[in-house]
Each structure stands twice: as structure tokens, then as C-alpha cells.
Write a structure and sequence with these properties.
The complex is a heterodimer of chains A (145) and B (273). Chain A is built from four helices and five strands, in the order E-E-E-E-E-H-H-H-H. With 145 residues, chain A is α+β, with helices and mostly antiparallel strands. In chain A, a hairpin with a 5-residue loop joins strand 2 and strand 3. The radius of gyration of chain A is 18 Å and the shape is globular. Chain B is 66% helix and 3% strand. Chain B contains six helices and two strands. In chain B, strands 1-2 form a two-stranded antiparallel ribbon. In chain B, helix 2 runs antiparallel to helix 3. Classes of the chains: A alpha+beta (145), B mainly alpha (273).
């Protein structure tokens, strides 16, 4: 079954298995139909730049992206990934289910699915941090005064 | 010490204040928690208990998969050791052909007989390079499962490393090497066999590195599942949130190196900047 992707004007898309291809849409919106089973694909909005990887789970997302973009350095990326995952699991053990799913996808080279699940992980992280942050900011104000 | 003695940049000061705030928060949440594991049995908190147990079960499933990968690696290693052995035998055989060129006919006949003996040894070595019944050098394949349902596998193909025509195709010494052309034939056979061995050996090495990377990754998964399951029983949303903030601050202070996007990845990411 073909996979249909609606591209906005100028939206970029990364496609491909062995060789990574970057596609940029022209000035009009277009539907792109992918007819064969392309192993991986990331849309412009889903691309994370290094500077945006500013939380533990966002760093994990960024690492998965690197594994896909640059398969030649998998071993290095894996070791950084596990360091990041270890830190997150120790800090917040309830992330383990999502992290396990992500890891399983990575092991099976389903990076697109891994990134999707990593997005959920980032949302979960935000939930965890939000209330803690309010409490912390109260604490910070106490220290300042 | 007066407060002005150490000058901090605004960024450092903000980090420090955040850190102090988080430490306060962690102390507060930890005070509220009872000592030791919050959940010790299914009766205390059934959900967490069974979730933790699930993770441990999964870790043991993965261990079985990892064992399969280890077996494959052992098989490839056995094949590789065989290839190395055969390579040195071929070199020895090549040495014989060189000696034969300057030998008289009696000498040539002896050397030709030795050559045939070496070919027999190659056949024996090819036959003995298996591991637990799988011999890559006897044209057997090995399939490694990376997941339980077998939808993701890698097949490592073996090849025939014997001297037969289906394999390395090295003929026995002809005419006791009386004529130079007899020797030429042997040399060309040996050169071709060497080329075959080199290319098979590099294919095996590439496959082995794929399996090794997967195996290391699976090891990481198992360790993470075990750590997570052990700590899951301690889970408390507030404490976890505080820990995550702490981790974020620690990472921003630079204890975790991330700036490792390689050239290849950078060139793609730049397009999205």
C-alpha cells in the first residue's frame, strides 16, 4: 500500500535507506505517494537540530536521528544512546516502557517508528518536568531572597 | 569568603541556582518517601509490581536472542580462523612452486607430492572449521534472528573452501611438475584461490560487525530493562520530575558530550537549519 504524504510548500523530507536523500517541495502543496516500502523517512517538522536537543529525552531523539542519518558510526551513537538512556531510566524509571519500545525499533532499524515513540517520550518528559519545575522555581526564589 | 571573590557568568549563576533549587526539591520528595523499595510484593502496588516483572521477563527473552547472536559470532570466528589457516597453507604451497622452478626433475617430483599433501590439509581444515555443526567453510549458511518473530534476520552465507572445483578450485600437481607450464597452472590456481579467500573473509568480517553491533545494543537493552525494573518500584512522579530537571542541568553543564554529529549527519542537518 502506498504511503501518502502531504507536503506543504517548501517543506523538506528525508527519505531513503542506504543513501539518504533530502527532498524539498516546490512552491505549491503536493501529495507524495511512496509506493514501495521505504525503510525510513523524516519530515521537515520532525527534524531536530543539535541546539534544540536541550533536555535528556530530546537528546535521545537527536541520537536516533543521527543513527539514521549516518549509519557508518552506529557503534559510537549506540554507546552515547545507552549512556543517555541509562541516565533517564535512573532519573525516571517510569520511562522504561517507552524506552524499551524505542530500543526495539532501533534494533530492528525502524527509525521512523523509533522517532515517533521518542516524540511521545519527550511529551512525557515535559509532563514530568512541568510540576517539578514550578516547585523548583519556588525553591529558587527562596534561595534568591 | 566574600561573595565577589569568585566571579560567575550569568549562565553559570543561573545553573547554580537551578541546581540548588532542584537539590532542595529532591530532598523534600525523598523525605516523604518511606525507606527502601516502595513496592515489595504484588500486594503493595499490583500495577508497578507486574509492570516491573514484565520488564524482567522481557530482559530474559532478550537474553535468549543475544545468545543466538553470540553463537553466530562464534560460528563466524570459527570460519575466519579456518580462512586464516587455509591462507597460510596456500602461502606454503606457493613457496613450493617457487622452489620447484629451480629444482631438478627429482626435486620437482618431491615438491609436487608435498604440494598435494598441502591440498589435502586445506580440505581437512575446510571440513573442520565448523562451530556446533555449522561450518561456513563447507558452504553452509547461518541465519541470525534479531527479533522474536523472525521478521528481522541476517543470513551469513558460507562458501566451499575445499580445493574441489566447486570450492577454491586448486588442482593436484600435474605430471609431477616436469614442465614449467605444470607449475604455472598451480600458481594461477593458488592466486585465484587467494583472491576468493580475501573477498569471502571481508564479507564475513562485515557481517560479523553487524551482528556485534546488534549484540552490544541488545546488551544495553537488557541492562536498561533490569535497572528500570529494579527502580520502578521506587517511582514517584514528583521525584522523577525533580530527577529529570537535575539531569537536564547536569547535561547542560557539559558532563554528557553530545556534540558528536559527524560530518555526514551535519551536512544533512544543515539543510534544515
Amino acid at each position: 500500500m502506498a504511503l501518502k504524504i502531504s507536503l506543504k510548500p517548501q517543506e523538506r523530507l528525508i527519505l531513503g535507506g542506504v543513501a539518504v536523500t533530502v527532498i524539498r517541495n516546490g512552491d505549491s502543496a503536493n501529495d507524495l505517494l511512496i509506493e514501495n516500502n521505504v525503510p525510513i523517512l523524516i519530515r521537515g517538522n520532525d527534524i531536530m537540530l543539535e541546539g534544540d536537543a536541550n533536555s535528556p529525552c530530546r537528546k535521545i531523539y537527536f541520537m536516533i536521528q543521527l543513527m539514521y542519518l549516518d549509519g557508518a558510526h552506529l557503534a559510537e551513537y549506540h554507546s552515547i544512546y545507552w549512556q543517555l538512556v541509562k541516565d533517564v531510566v535512573e532519573a525516571a524509571p517510569s520511562t522504561i516502557g517507552l524506552l524499551d519500545t524505542i530500543s526495539e525499533h532501533i534494533l530492528n532499524e525502524r527509525y521512523y517508528k523509533a522517532l515517533k515513540t521518542a516524540r511521545q517520550l519527550i511529551n512525557y518528559e515535559q509532563d514530568l518536568m512541568r510540576s517539578a519545575k514550578e516547585l523548583r522555581d519556588d525553591s529558587c526564589n527562596l534561595i534568591r531572597t | 569568603m566574600a561573595i565577589n571573590d569568585v566571579s560567575l557568568t550569568a549562565g553559570m549563576r543561573a545553573n547554580l541556582v537551578n541546581l540548588q533549587g532542584t537539590v532542595n526539591l529532591i530532598n523534600r520528595t525523598q523525605e516523604r518517601l518511606s525507606t527502601g523499595k516502595k513496592v515489595n510484593s504484588a500486594l503493595d502496588d499490583p500495577t508497578n509490581y507486574f509492570v516491573a516483572k514484565d520488564h524482567l521477563n522481557r530482559a530474559s527473552d532478550l537474553t535468549a536472542r543475544k545468545d543466538g547472536m553470540s553463537e553466530a559470532i562464534q560460528t563466524v570466528k570459527a570460519g575466519n580462523a579456518g580462512i586464516e589457516g587455509i591462507t597460510s597453507l596456500i602461502n606454503a604451497a606457493k613457496g613450493l612452486t617457487q622452489s620447484a622452478r629451480s629444482a631438478d626433475s627429482a626435486g620437482r617430483s618431491t615438491l609436487a607430492a608435498q604440494f598435494n599433501t598441502i591440498l589435502d590439509q586445506i580440505d581437512e581444515m575446510a571440513a573442520d572449521s565448523g562451530y556446533k555443526g555449522v561450518n561456513l567453510l563447507a558452504d553452509k549458511d547461518i541465519t541470525v534472528d534479531f527479533n522474536e518473530d523472525g521478521s528481522n534476520t541476517l543470513t551469513i552465507s558460507g562458501f566451499d573452501a575445499s580445493t574441489s572445483t566447486a570450492g577454491l578450485n586448486i588442482a593436484d600437481a600435474t605430471n609431477s611438475w616436469v614442465a614449467d607450464t605444470d607449475i604455472d597452472g598451480a600458481v594461477s590456481d593458488l592466486d585465484q584461490a587467494m583472491t576468493t579467500l580475501r573477498s569471502q573473509s571481508s564479507t564475513l568480517a562485515a557481517n560479523m560487525s553487524i551482528v556485534t553491533i546488534r549484540q552490544d545494543f541488545t546488551t544495553g537493552m537488557i541492562a536498561t530493562l533490569q535497572t528500570g525494573a529494579d527502580n520502578l518500584t521506587l517511582a514517584d512522579m514528583n521525584e522523577e520530575g525533580a530527577n529529570m530537571l537535575m539531569l537536564q542541568t547536569r547535561q547542560s553543564l557539559g558532563t554528557t558530550a553530545l556534540s558528536l554529529a559527524s560530518q555526514a549527519a551535519q551536512s544533512v542537518l544543515r539543510l534544515f537549519g
